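Comment thread on ticket #2218

A.B. wrote:
> Attaching the input chain for the structure job we discussed in standup.
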Amino acid sequence: MYKRDLFNSPIRLRIPDYLFICILLYSLIFVVFPFGPASFLNKAIYFKNILMLGAMYFFGRVMILNHLQVMYLLRIILTLTILAFFVNLIEKFTNIHFQSLIGYGDLLLERKEILPTGNYGLTWTFEAQSGAKRFAAFFSSPLELAAAMLLSFSTALVLFLNINNRFYKVKYGALIILSIGCLLFAYSRSSLIGFFLLIFFIALVLGYHKLIIYGILSVSIFFGGVFIFAAEDLQYFVLDTLSLADSSSLSHVVEWLEGIESIVSSPFGIGLGTSGNAGGVENDMKIGGENQFIIFGVQLGLPFLVLYISLLISSIYLCVRSYKMAENMTEKAIPFIAATFKFAFLLPLMTANAENYLYVAYISWWMVGYSISIKKTIPNLPKLKISA
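C.D. wrote:
> Ran it. Output below, let me know if you need it in another format.
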């Protein structure tokens, strides 16, 4: 799971390493010093959320996996995709949320003191404005399922593009379709748009220019199918989304404005545990939300927000470079998934506290760290020698 000579090998720090170290130290200051109204325990719990992202990234930086281990990891991701799709099918045909059968509403009440809302005894996230059910399979919400399927789509696509065997191409093509199917079951607008952006990103940055045509056709077919064949509730769902007329879109806007107002009035932040819905945030002191960038800006200020955005940009850039310099499928797979997912994930980050989706957050940051570590041809910043 790690380099055996970790303490005797040189550590070549790159831009994301410095940025992540600055992010962790910066947020630690907000824990140690009495900034903000949250208690020390709540601030420490929220800091843990940020610390785990850094931990997963640096785990990736010190790991080296062989071909079989990489394929094993990718198969786990795709196996979860298959299982999620079949759970979604059962949910759709029975018209029952899986979460309703396992007492998920009781868990929210017991652990997070969140009262069941909506028409189905869960939360409003599990239904569209029209009342149609949004399914999440075995994930905590439809939004997290949709984000996970962006990761699954990238995983299946890189295998589809880099394996010549006809049987495996059909298999991975089917998995691409299953991941798109789960996206539709989840009814997540940001992830659906992120999916189309992902196709264009792959086409423009990674050199698959024919995908631009396929992307345009996919968008045209999707919206054409919605307005010609889909039920009225889906048609209204799309129209209300585009016009920001539904209550969900309006709530996003209200949360954004509230958060932006807080950032303008307190550009250096008001303290950890004061925005979003991650662990450590009390509802009675929560300001703003529904946008990961605004959530960080409210709590930790504009300097932290600049560090976080710089981290995302540099991570995507270096993962793309790592993919382009790769010599075989084993080296290509993880950088491809990391770059394309992180780009597509930008939109969900703008509409939710998405770094709280632990499955995709942990795996994607691990993949970013791993992608940066496997290519020695990327220019190095000054190296730091650590000896046992």
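A.B. wrote:
> Thanks. Noting for the ticket: The radius of gyration is 21 Å.
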